[in-house]
Each structure stands twice: as C-alpha cells, then as structure tokens.
Fold this protein.
Amino acid sequence: MSDQAAAFKHRINTALGDEQAHSNFRSAMSMLMEKRAAQFPDEDELLEKRQRANAIRAHALRNLPQLLEQLEQQLINNGIQVHWARDGAEANAIIHQLLEAAGAKSVVKGKSMVSEEIDLNHYLQQHGIEILESDLGEFIIQLAHETPSHIVMPAIHKTKQDIAELFHKHFPELPYSEDVDEMTQQARQILRDRFRQADAGISGVNFMVAETGTLCLVENEGNGRMSTTVPPLHIAVTGIEKVVEKLTDVPPLLDLLTKSATGQPITTYFNMISHPRQAGELDGPEAVHLVLLDNGRSHIKRDEVLLDTLRCIRCGSCINHCPVYVQVGGHAYGTVYPGPIGTVLEPMRLGIDQIGTLTSACSLCGACAQVCPVQIPLPKLINRLRADSVSHQNHSGVKGEGSLRKQAEVLSWKGWRWLYSSPLRYRLFSKLATRLRGLTPSSIGGWSRYRTVTKPAPRPLSELIKEAGFDHE
C-alpha cells in the first residue's frame, strides 16, 4: 500500500470511529438537505434555473481570457489595483508585500476558501503579521488550530460544548457558557475591537463582474462587510474562474447559491465593491487590491472534460448530499476542498500522485450531480480521474497520470480478458473453478475487508441448462 493510500485509510478509520462527529454531520446534512428542498418545490423551475446558471458559467469560462482582461481594465478604471499570481507562493508574496508597504501588522480576514488553498494565515504569521479570522466558524477552527471541515460551514464538526471549552480556554475572562446565542455575542464582542484596530482587511470573492469591475461577496454575519470597509486597506483574493460577464449574470447565480448552500432565499448581506473610498464618503478602505490566483486553473481549463469543474460556485450542496462525506466528514479527505467537488478538484490541483486515492471516496450514486446548481457532472469527472490514475497513455496532462497503476491489476485484467474472449476457454475455466471451489481464498485484499468472498457454484449454469434439456447455444 502506498503512503498516500495508507494515510487516507488511517484518516477514514479515525473518522469512522468518531461517533459524535458522525452524529453532528448526519444531523447537519439532513437539516441542510431539507432546507434546500423546501426552496425548490417546483422541479421544472429548478431545472430551468440550473440550465441558465450552467450557461452563464460555461459562457464565462469559454471567454475567460477576454473577460479577465476586461475585468482588469474596469477595476483599474475604478481605482482598484489588480495583481496576478501563478500559484499560492506568488499570491502569498504579493499579499505580504502589500501589507508590508502599508505598514500593516494586524489583519482581519473574512471567509475565503482560496486563502485556505494557499495557506495564507500560516504564511503571514511566519512573517510576523497577526491575522484573525472574523467569520464565526473560521474563528472557532482558528482557535482550535484546525482546518475547515466544510467549505460553507467550517466548524460543523464541533459541538456547542467543544466551542464553549475553546472560548473558556482562550478567553478565561469571559463567563463560561454553552448557550449558542451567548457564545455568538461573546465572539462578536471580541471581534468588534479587532475590526477597529486592524491595519488591513482580507476577503474572498464570490463573483467578479467584468462589465462593471465589481467584486461581489455573499455572507450572513456582517464580518465580511466589516473586514472590507473598516480597515484602511482591503485585499481581496480569489481564483480566476470567478468572473462573469455582466451584472445581470449575478442574480441567477446568487439565487441558486444561497438556496443550495444553506436553504436561504437570500443571505443577510450581499456586498458589491467597485472602488475604494471616494471623496465625500464617510467609510470604506483608502485602497483596494485584487489578487487573481491561477494555481492550476488554466491547466484545468485546457481539458474539454475537466473544464466543467471550474463552473463551481462553492455552494457546498454536493457535499451536503454526499453519503461518503456524511460518514467521514471533511478532515478525512486531508484536503482543502472535501466532498465530491474536492474529489475532482484536488487531484487536478495537487496531482494524482499526491492525492489520487481520493477518487475512491465516492460511491458514484450521482446525488452530487443531481443537486449541483450549475450542473457539473461530478460522477463523470470522478470516473475520468479514476481512469487517468491508472492510464498508461499520458493523454490528459493531469499531473501524476498513471501513478496508481499496479502491474498485478494489469495482469489480472488481461487474464480476465483472455478467458472471457473465448467461449471454449471460458467453459473450461468454469468447469475447473467449480471442481476446485474448495480452494477459494477467504480473503482477496481490500474488497473482502467488508464483504464475504463468494465461491463458485458446485456446477456451472451451462451444465444445469444442458441437463434440463434446454438449448443454450
């Protein structure tokens, strides 16, 4: 067993042994599935919405270079500075340089999965910059020194008792409480002061509008608005695929995003940022920067099949409906993006040789594809990556293609093809197998770890049919 397979197996077994976490996931996912279903009572209407959203995202990806150029020009015209990063290391360096140039020593950050992707917090802390997560879920896992277990609800694996103990450990001056509302108020009290004192704010971006040079942020807590408005410097970081052509493209995507993610008709806040503070305005940052991250996205775009992955709007609905995720949670995947979307995106981003075994964490039930608001064919893409992981043709360009290919499996399938391609060989093999059925092994590797190994029947079906007098030719 390879090192990556062994590590993945260990994480899976650890997750399966955590009954409390499993109960948390099952309860939360069931609630989210019910809330989403309540938002889409008309299946025909939902299909029309998904088709429209698919068309919007597909159009943006087909015209990605032109739209990114248009976006850059509009942002510059609006007074927002644009920076391009080929990978995480370059993005981190750019952000650090911007903070250093502004003399910023403390940062408040709104929720951003791209910042998790590039491990921004760790990088800035190593360079002496204090960074505080302002989203409540992200704030909780930052205190616990953990990574998000879900792309929308990062602390979904935590109980209220876990959170109460964390708060008491880090803020002993506050009264111990397991009341959710009281703990929320405590977090708000802690964060309010940090917003006022921070030298800079960092955020993600949900949609970028090329037509107007507008950055759109979706949130429920108001922390995103505080992070992008109160500090004098705002740095947004996002993937290049988040661009759409027109402002009118945003409402259809927003409608599906919020309903698919949390079952809400609309989130509490929808922020549209088009420029820094203007003359006569009382609030807003003095400078706004956008860091556009590639990090393998251009490479994915070159593949006509895998390109569909970039349509994702990060709603997490595929995760909420995944039977595998419900059993093991996000940390078992060992990646930034868990669930079905992570099973597709991460092997392309990190390489099949590094994380290819992730594609086995899928039953191909198809639930993810049925609920994806932009109609990404996730099971098809997972199957494609499974094939790439054992391919010897090197046709896809995915890093590590063929790295999971095992010679023993290759020989086994060749032997199977040799037997089943000849009626005579198949009949002889069937007779031999029935005569030697007592030698059937009790274990045949991983497959039999959770299944009983079947034995050949005492007599093959062809003999029984012939004995009964039927013509089976």
User: Anything to note?
Assistant: The first strand starts at residue 81 and ends at 85. Residues 425-467 form one domain. The chain has three domains: 1-39+306-405, 58-295, 425-467. Strands lie at 81-85, 106-109, 130-133, 200-203, 207-209, 214-219, 233-239, 243-244, 269-273, 287-293.
